[in-house]
Write a structure and sequence with these properties.
Elements (H helix, E strand, L loop, with lengths): L2 H12 L10 H10 L1 H17 L12 H14 L12
Length: about 90
Amino acid sequence: MLCSRIRTALSARLDGEEPPPGHTARGLDGHLAACADCRDWEARARRLAALTAGRASADGREPGASADALLARLRAVSALPGAGDGEQAG
């Protein structure tokens, strides 16, 4: 079976949806056992789903920690002399 079709079915499974016609959980698991590329794809898709769902990142930081750190850096930069020069959005 084509890996692209397997990956579509895996995506549906990750989203909690029914698999496309002709695919079963057992069939997907069998393909994953034999196909390293699809196992890698599924692992990356799971990480992406976890990150976009606001769960802890792969490095164990709390959800939003990266965003908070970025915002703190932006605030610090905007407080530098000359950072307020020019037009302001708004």
